[in-house]
Amino acid sequence: MAEESTRGLGRLQGKAAVVTGAAKGIGRATAELFAREGASLVVTDVDGDGLSELGAELERAGKPAEAVVGDVSKPEDAQTMIRACVDRFGGIDVLVANAGVIPLNNIVDATPRIGTT
Ligand SMILES: NC(=O)c1ccc[n+]([C@@H]2O[C@H](COP(=O)([O-])OP(=O)(O)OC[C@H]3O[C@@H](n4cnc5c(N)ncnc54)[C@H](O)[C@@H]3O)[C@@H](O)[C@H]2O)c1
Fold first, then answer.
1. Which of 51, 74, 100, 117 is the most exposed place for a label (fewest CB within 10 A)?
2. Residue ID of nearest Cα to ligand 1 atom 24
3. What DSSP line would sit under 75-89, residue for residue?
4. Which of 30, 43, 46, 79 to mutate to test the pocket of ligand 1 (most atoms within 8 A of CB)?
5. Is residue 117 a part of any domain in this protein?
6. 55 is in which domain, residue-wise?
7. Which residue has the higher pLDDT, 52 or 8?
8. What is the pTM of this model?
9. In a domain, 28, yes or no
10. Ligand 1 pocket member 27 (CB < 6 A)
11. Alpha-carbon distances, residue 99 vs 21, 38, 80 (angstroms)
12. For residue 115, what pLDDT is reported?
């Protein structure tokens, strides 16, 4: 964790949170912040390698967390993520529905039209 030695204020102590798209970017930063603030976490992503890295980081820091690989666009995966939080932590207080993509084009391929292609 980037600020592993920094302790939060315990603002999420006793709370259970699910963060989707947690392998990198905003989701990862959110998961790290929530962990510092004392939350119990289920972190999820389609990127199993990135998620393992985060899971190992949280474990090293002694934070209660479970990593669930899955695709939020698949209802059965989404259910598994939520169920993992309920089963492990007894409920869910916060859902950060962060997973997603912004399709960006290369400037070289840009056209005057709005939208893709
Ligand atoms: N960064 C920005 O400027 C910006 C602006 C507006 C909205 N957003 C939104 O914020 C969210 C996070 O943005 P970011 O910049 O951190 O993105 P990012 O690409 O760095 O991270 C997104 C993460 O979500 C995961 N993901 C994507 N689709 C998934 C799916 N179907 N199921 C599970 N995991 C999935 C990816 O594997 C990745 O780890 C996205 O939803 C994005 O659309 C970002």
1. 117
2. 21
3. HHHHHHHHHHHHHHH
4. 46
5. no
6. 16-109
7. 52
8. 0.90
9. yes
10. yes
11. 4, 22, 15
12. 60
- In the predicted model, is pLDDT for residue 4 greater than 50? no
pLDDT in tens, 35-90: 999 999 999 999 999 999 999 999 999 999 999 999 999 999 999 999 999 999 99
Q: How far apart are CA 37 and CA 14, in angstroms?
A: 10
CB 72 within 8 A of CB 95: no
- Residue 100 sits in a domain whose CATH number is 3.40.50.720
- Which of 28, 45, 53, 79 for mutating ligand 1's site (highest number of atoms within 8 Å of CB)? 45
Task: Please tell me the distance between residue 49's alpha carbon and the centre of ligand 1 in angstroms.
Answer: 16
- CA gap 9, 36 in Å, rounded: 8
Average pLDDT over residues 16-41: 98
* 109, pLDDT greater than 60: yes
Number of domains in the chain: 1
Which atom from ligand 1 is nearest to the alpha carbon of 100? Answer: 41
Q: Return the best residue to mutate from 26, 44, 80 for the ligand 1 pocket (most ligand atoms within 8 A of CB).
A: 26
Mean pLDDT of the chain: 92
Q: Using the 8-state DSSP alphabet, how is residue 53 labeled? A: H
